[in-house]
Amino acid sequence: MNQRKAGAILSYLSLGINSIVGIIYIPMLLWFLTKEEFGLYQLVGAAIGYLSTMDFGMANTTTRYYSRYLAQNDKSAQENLLATCAILYGVLAALVFIVGIILLFFFLPLYTRTLSAQEITTAKYLFFILLFNLAISFPSNIFTAIVNSHEKFIFTKTLSLINIILQPLVILLLLSRFPNVLTVAIGHTICSLLVIALTSWFSFTKLKVKFKLHQWNGNFVKELLSYSFFIFLVMVVEIIYLKTGQLILGALIGTAAVAIYSVSVQILMMYRNFSGAIFNVFLPKLSAIASQTEDMTEMNKIFIKISRLQFIFLGLIFIGFILYGKPFLSLWIGTDFLPSYSCTLVLMAGYLFVSSQNIAVLILQAKNKYAPYAYIYTITGIFNLLISIPLCKMWGVLGCAIATTCCLLLGQLFAADIYYAKTGIDVKEYFNNIGRILPFLFFSLAVGLLLKLLYPAKTNTVLLCHIVLFCLSFVFICWKFIFNKYERDLIAAPVQNFLQKGIKYVKR
User: Three-state SS across 25-48?
Assistant: First the structure.
């Protein structure tokens, strides 16, 4: 099994375990923390999220250029790139810490109306710990880029899997002794340091990378920063889409509303991550293709293949949440968070189309045609920021979700897709495929609604049976009407392999 395929499998395994861990972890976190403390943590985290964009997209930039030099087997260029990026990362780490300290004095006064004096004090300490965590993580991004460029996805995904399991355990263990919101931030920092240490160790000892500044090329640095700038713009807009709601709700309503919206964002992040699991796995491959040919045939094959799988899988989750989201929220974190249901559905609807096309963004990065997309995304992000405030005043938590989804669909399904088509990405074939898939997704929804109507889920056991039957019916509908040969083989091959090994074991 090659590294790319193994990385994709481990990515989805990590996502599955991450979802399970999240389902267990968040209720336990809320057992140690109050709803307001949880909301405060999310509020400060949203502010730190804006500072995280000061990475300026250097991780993706390093991966793109380093993958190109690996394909060309240019050792000198590899060493010079890493040394150059290390200097830039050092400057960025210092800059983010300085900007963060300055921001601390301007950020918290905005919330004196909705936060108590004790919450303001706690927020200051929380901000500083998370800022430190962010600053030390910046230089470590270069090692992640190195490992990804070498396509050592088994290591990166296994490490991610270990961190997913270890981090909640460390935090909950610390909370059992020190039940305070600051403990959560300290636990995150401890685990971050461990991941940084292991990734840098692997880069130096296993990949034998060298950092050597052969020359300081001002034009090359300008090219790096120019490429990074547009990734940075999109990162800022991503934060606007995902974090601004918490900041606005915290200022206008309070930390309880932040907690409700944060639950929706947590679910949305898991939802988006299912589509993004194989995102970074393909960047080195696409960068190598772009460095060798201008022909789009192979890239479009990857685009259609991956976008179909993403849309089908996201469709399953979206329909499942429509059917079973309310009882899931009640069982998971209690009826106090039921307002998150409608908010989550609105956000999921927007990201169903956006996330299923995210492989196109990688193609733009690989071909260095990312700038216009960044401008499109930035304009819609600013518009989202402007309309979120009045919609929040009108409809509260739901208003923030509506603003985000409307702007996402406006930017993605119109402006971005037009640009994709101009760059040679086969958007028409994408929509042809989606058009053939959508009717059967609606049919799956109808099957689920009929099942609920005929056999109401009055107990948790019946609810579980409903979910299992719905998933089985969805797989059957996909197998019969949606899947192409590649998708059938993708499922049939491992099943057949498993059965053959089972038969051989029984015969022994």
Answer: HHHHHHHHCCHHHHHHHHHHHHHH
Q: Chunked in runs of 10, what are the mean pLDDT values of the chain (508 residues)?
A: 58 69 76 79 75 66 77 82 83 81 75 77 84 79 80 77 84 86 86 86 84 77 71 73 77 80 84 65 66 78 87 91 90 82 90 85 80 84 86 87 88 81 89 91 91 82 86 90 83 67 58
**pLDDT tens digits, one per residue of 452-463:** 888 887 787 888
Q: What angle in degrees, to the nearest 10, is found between the helix axes of 255-276 and 297-333?
A: 140
Contact of 64 with 146, CB cutoff 8 Å: no
pTM beyond cutoff 0.90? no
* CB 347, CB 398: distance < 8 Å: no
What pLDDT score does 329 carry?
87
Distance CA 309, CA 320 (A): 17
Rounded distance between C-alpha atoms, residue 451 and residue 445, angstroms:
10
Exposure letters 66-94 (e unless 16+ CB within 10 A, then b):
bbbbbbeeeeebbbbbbbbbeebbeebbe
Residue among 291, 438, 434, 426 at smallest CA distance from 359 = 426
- For helices 279-292 and 117-149, angle between their N-to-C axes, nearest 10 degrees: 40
CA distance 79 to 102: 35
Q: Which long-range contacts link 358-362 to residues 24+ away (Cβ below 8 Å)?
A: 358/275, 358/276, 358/279, 358/310, 359/279, 359/282, 359/302, 359/303, 359/306, 359/307, 359/310, 360/303, 360/307, 360/420, 360/425, 360/427, 361/234, 362/279, 362/282, 362/283, 362/286
Q: What amino acid is encoded at 161 in this protein?
A: L
- Measured in degrees and rounded to the nearest 5, phi and psi for residue 376 equal -60, -50
403, 387 Cβ separation under 8 angstroms? yes
Q: What are phi and psi of 276, to 5 degrees?
A: -95, 5
Q: What is the pLDDT of residue 385?
A: 83
Q: What is the pLDDT of residue 341?
A: 92
Please provide the DSSP assignment of 272-329 as one string. Answer: HHHHHTTHHHHHHHHHHHHHH----HHHHHHHHHHHHHHHHHHHHHHHHHHHHHHHHH
Tokens for 365?
A: 């990065």
**C-alpha torsion angle, residues 224, 227, 230, 236 (rounded to 10):** -40
Phi, psi torsion values for 206, nearest 5 degrees:
-95, -40
Task: Please answer whether residues 284 and 63 qualify as being in contact, where contact means their C-beta atoms are separated by less than 8 angstroms.
Answer: yes
